[in-house]
Specification:
The protein is α+β, with helices and mostly antiparallel strands and 130 residues long. The protein contains four helices and five strands.
Length: 130
């Protein structure tokens, strides 16, 4: 399996449980590892044989701009579902962080993995974005 990665993607969304978080969009930082459904792209040099990362970024920008999530965990699950269901990813690792939410803390976040874990190559665990 080949893995496409998108690091330090910044997106705006309504995220949080507090009234101010439900009223004002926040920037979240996201890093993605996306297991492609085949390894053909390396041989064919054809975008149709892989997952188009520009399409992924565009889809996530529009989706997150139109949604509210209470928890980062729900946002991460939603992103994973889009990648698996709409883009045909076999496996995903989604890291999402809220920036500057707590005094003295640069970022807080979650990391989830979904999909076919039995076929994964050795991938070094990556820390939350940043």
């Amino acid at each position: 399996m080949d893995i496409i990665f998108i690091d330090d993607l910044r997106l705006s969304t309504l995220i949080g449980i507090y009234p101010r978080e439900k009223a004002m969009p926040q920037t979240v930082e996201m890093s993605l590892h996306i297991g492609t459904p085949s390894t053909r792209a390396g041989a064919s040099d054809n975008i149709d044989d892989t997952i188009n990362y520009a399409a992924v970024v565009g889809r996530l920008r529009s989706e997150l701009a139109a949604q509210h999530f209470n928890l980062l965990e729900k946002l991460a699950e939603h992103v994973a579902s889009i990648l698996l269901d709409e883009f045909g990813a076999r496996w995903v690792r989604v890291s999402i962080a809220k920036l500057g939410m707590m005094n003295g803390v640069r970022r807080v976040g979650v990391i989830i993995e979904r999909g076919e874990s039995t076929t994964l190559p050795a991938v070094a665990a990556s820390p939350a974005p940043g």
